[in-house]
Structure formats: structure tokens, C-alpha cells
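Q: What does the assembly look like in three dimensions?
Context provided by user:
Components: two
Sequences:
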Amino acid sequence: MSDFLSRKDILGLRDFTRQEIELVLDTAASMEDILQREIKKVPSLRGKTVVNLFFEPSTRTRTSFEIAGKRLSADVVNFSAAVSSVKKGETLLDTARNIEAMKPDVLVVRHSSSGAPHFLARHLSVPVVNAGDGRHEHPSQGLLDLYTIRKVKGRIEGLNVLILGDILHSRVARSDIYGLTTMGAKVTICGPSPLIPREYQALGVEATWDINEALRGKDVVIVLRIQLERMESSFFPSIREYVRYFGLNRERMKLAKEDAIVMHPGPVNRGWELADDLADSDVSVILQQVEAGVAVRMAILYLLAHVREEVES
Amino acid sequence: MSDAPVKVIKGGVIVDPEEGEKEGLCVVIEGGRVTGLVPPEEAPAGEGVEVIDAEGLHVLPGLVDLHVHLRDPGYEWKEDIQSGTAAAAAGGFTSVVCMANTDPVNDDPETTRYIVERAREVGKAKVYPVAAITKGLKGEELTNMGELLEAGAVAFSDDGKPVASALILSRAMEYSLMFGAPLILHEEEITLSKGGCLNEGKMSTRLGLPGIPASSEICAVARDIALAEYTGAKVHIAHVSTAGAVEIIKRARERGVAVTAETAPHYLTLTEEATEGFNTRAKMNPPLRTERDREALLQALAEGVIDCVATDHAPHEDLVKECEFDVAAFGIIGLQTALPLTLRALESAGKGVKELVKVMSYNPSKVIGIKGGKIEKGGPADITLVDLSREWVFTEDVNLSKSRNSPFLGWTLKGKVVLTMVDGKVTYREESRVR
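A: Here is the predicted structure of the complete assembly.
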């Protein structure tokens, strides 16, 4: 197994190989060791600059990347731009080229347009990390989910995973699906029928609208957040009916395997997609996901900004 | 380049939409008209006669494109009448029909006259303007159709913006009956397609982009054919992209509804897969669909259910095309790649150059009621010479459009236009062949 990523950017998990995923997860494991120490900082990225270029509001992902960069001694700069202000004549590429001219070592990009980080990666020589693009992919979330599952379950291959909720609009779902299937898990998706893509087979998953059927025999249940605007645009009629047919609670969880775990990318709408008590129960690994997020993002930055440079020189 | 009073095209294979390929005849041209198809020994010779050697070439009636955005007036940085018709001539077109979504919109006789006069001044192709169905393409009030036709318009279309109101479109159809000019309909049920930027299907699922469902086109075609059947108006369905729309058109034609239809070379060549990697040069409206749709379109074209191929040539500058996929402009250029791509498609369906002439010249001429589509005595000398077997690469150097938004850049294509003439006047001549 090689110990470096032979790619410049991390844009999505669709084209990640199993070896690449394992490399990130293994690197993240050693990063987690660092996070257990009293002094949680190593000098690996000293003198490097990571720019968080966020065109969409985000506190959690941005903070996670920021802490990850700082733990590695990188200088982390946050650049937030509203897409609307970018539209005033300055193109996305202009903005990114301006940032690139300041010589950052890694660009972490979040954007509401699917494919925006890919577009930037094509035009810039600086490594680009996709921190969420539209409804396309969120690879660092996908990797931290894989990391958490591997850690709790000891493996990913052969597991039965359910992703529950708004698959159509979810970048987390796509990255999870690509990563999980590459690692040999079997993925089922479930949600209100208008929120299941018509051509879900293109994702390599099975689909059902019946939550009871969906839960049966599952090792892992990943619950997605309800977006209120989907109700407003008639993808489903009401929260009440959503909870009735798709809300995950203790009773329903009994249909899954006895040792099944519940995951959620956060923030949870308590009592909606996930029952309050279930979110806080010991089958929930939600906080472990957040913890893993820092380790995984450290691994990503390390592999792109440090190892790659070592290999090239 | 001389423009002798008499020209003789010698040695080529003349292609007729009905009789097919005819060998051993020269085309004699005088005063901008074809004055005869004669054996070589009867062809005029001597001083004042230019002989065009067409040995090894096919002699086609000039191609007619029913769907072009020349962007002039108003968007001349994307294209103008000069550059657009130069690209048309290089692509073998002698006539182009240009859409009304200019700035100002072509909803006023003055704009129509400008287009006609400017095209005449440039002299690279016959340009037939399409005027808007509704003022400002707003879908609210009808344009002065009579005056627009008098000024030179040949058809009406709100292309790019479908007429949302069934009532307004129905009125437009009724009103058009007086004149007999066709309405060219961009078929899109906007409430279904809004926000979409590629086919709703496999690629929209993988790339996480909002899709445009096939049902958007199918619903609109169904509605508009119902209106056409009811009113008796002549309608032409623009850029058909779905198998579902083909089915509806087929049944309507069987019932005798006055409906014609076009598709574009890209729908016959590519599928939604071309958007892989967020390729904005594969973004157009309607979007590229599935392989099943592509095959249905091809079959419909071979069977004559779809009677025309039109380019939907839609030039855009890099600024609005080389950007995020969802905000990128819809449309691709197509004038210089249409002939080889259509030929390739037809050949894959067991058809050939005769059908090419039908769908790219003869039938389109009939749709807008112009003379053309056939090389015959007394007809206009609108002629295209093509080397059907020659392979060439479509590159930015070859491209004559002001824009370069084509998914076919870098493609090796078979079938090269060597010479184009409009009313006997050469509008394009491949330099390397000048002897």
C-alpha cells in the first residue's frame, strides 16, 4: 500500500479507491492518537497556510477544518463570501485566483453549486478540498462516517447500512454511499418517495419507502436532517406525516440488529427525523462522528499539504 | 476568388432528396440560378465560364438551418450576423433561420428589417428571421404578426421561453392561420423544469444537480399538439430531445395534424453521460437525454417522423459558460459540426446522404416555405460541395464562430464542406482546395 495520495485534490469519494480510503482512515487513526495527548499539537504543517473558502454559511465543518489545521500547526485563514456578493461581477474563479495569489497550501472550499470545487481544482494549482458542494458530495463527512463505523464496528466490509431521509438533496448521502459501497458495505436508502432519486440504481444502492423493511437486519443507520424548505416545495406534506413514516425512534430501532448504531451528520432536529431519547442513547455515535471529524480532516490536510510535498521533492 | 457570370460544377455526384445520387451531370449556373443539369459535353465552356472541379465530391442543395441564434442585435460579443453566417457557410449552410431572443427582442418590424438588411450586406448566407410570438417574449401580448411577416420574418417563436399560457398560445395559433406562417415551439413545461440544468436521471443523481425531467418536454408537446389540432395552425416542434415527445408527434402526424419537428445533431450523438465531470459544454436546453431517447430520435429521423435537423447554434462566451455548472448558460454552437454529425447518425441508421439532404435542406425549406432543398433548373443556385469521406478535426482554429462552446472541439469528424455558394456566389471555399 502506498502511503501517499497520488491526487492533487479531494473532491469526492466517487472516484476514490479502497486503498485511498484506507490510507486516509489509517492516517486519521494516528491523528486521533495525537488528539488524546495533553498537548494536542504537532508541527507537521508549520509554515503552511490553509484557507477555508466558504461560499455557504457553515460553522461546524469550518470549525472542524480550522481545528484540524491548527492541531497540525498550519496557519488557518477563513474567507467567507456570500455567493450573492460574488455574483456582483466577480466570478468564482476571480475570487479563487485572488486567494491563490496569496500562496495558500490548501484550499478548503464549500459552495452551494454542485461541482464548484471541481471547477476550481481544474483551474488552480493549489490542492482543493471539497467541504461540501451543493447536493453533490461532502467527502470529509463521508470519510469521518467511514472512520466512525470502522472504529465502532471493527470493519466496514459486509455491513448492512441504511441511509434514511432526503437522499435526493443530500451531499452527505452521496459521499457515504460512494465510500461505503467501495469499502464493501451494502447500502439501502429509504425516505419519502419524492426524495429518493428516480435513478437511485445509478448510485449502486437498494431503495425502499418502507422504514420497517428498511431497518431490518441493519448494522448502521445514518439519519439525514430534514430540510424545512423541502416541505415548503411539496416534497412531503408535513413534519407530522414525515415523523409518522420516517422518524427514527427506539421502537423502530428494534427492527435493526441488536448492536446497530445510529449516526447523524448534524445538526439534529430533535423529535423530527430522530427521537430525542434515541439521539442521546448509547446506540447513538453522533458525538464520536464529530470527534472523528477533526482526526479525518487532519489526515486530509496532512496528506495533501505535507506528504504530497515530501513525495514530490 | 472570381465570380464569373457563368459557373459550371463538374464531375461531382449530385444529390437529390427524391432521386438520390446522380452522376455524370454538370450543374450550370447563371445569374444566381441553376439553368441546367447537363452532361459534360453540353456544358458551356470558354471565357467567362468558371469551372468548379467537383471530382470526388458530392453536390448538395445548400443546407438550411431552422434554428440558429445569431445574437445580433444586442449580444454581438457572443456572435453577430457576420461571424454567424461565416460559420454557417463553412458548415455548408446557405440559409439560416435566426431566433428572436436578441436585444431588443425581434418583436418589431424595425428589428426584423435590420436583420434582413444586415445579412444582405454581409452576403454570407440567406438569413430568415423568426419573430417573437409575444412581445418581449413575455408570453402576454401577441406581436404584430402581419407587419413582421411583411418586414421579412418567416415564422414565429418565443424560443428559449415557452409560451406558458395555453390561451395565449392558442390565440397566436388562431391568428397565424390568416398568414399560414408556422409557429416554432420550444417545448418545456416550466413548472417541471425550473432550476434544472441537465436531464433528470442517472447523471443528475450522481452529480447532485437539479434535473429537467423528460416529462417537462412531453407535457408541453402534448399540450401544444392538442392546441394545434384544435386550431388547425401550422406548428413546428423545436429541438425534440425525448422518446416520449417522438411518440406524441408520430401519433399526431398519423392523424393528419400539421406538425413538423426537428432535432439537433447533439441529441443524435451524445447522451447525458457527456456531462460527466460537470462539463458545461454538454449543458443545453433541452438537455442531453438517455441512450434510449437518442435511439428513438434516430429512428424517428430515419422514418421521417422527425423531418428536420437543426443546430440550435447558441454561442456563449467563456465568462458565462466556463463556470459552475448550475449557473452556466445553456447552449452550444453547432453550425460547423452539424453536417458530419448528422451524416454519422444517419449512416448508423442505415441511411445516407440522400436523407441528409432531406432533413437538412429539403424539409426545412418546406417548413418555412422557401425555395431550396433541390438542385433543379430555375431554382436558386444555393449549393454545397462536400467531400463525404474526408476526416478532419474540429479545432478552435477551424471554428469561425465568436464563441467556442462546443462539446465537439477536438473531435475527428467525417465529411468536410469544400465549397458553399449562395445564389451562385461563393460564400465559403476551403483554401487548401483552391487549385
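Follow-up: Residues 6-59+379-429 of chain B form a domain with the Urease, subunit C; domain 1 fold (CATH 2.30.40.10).
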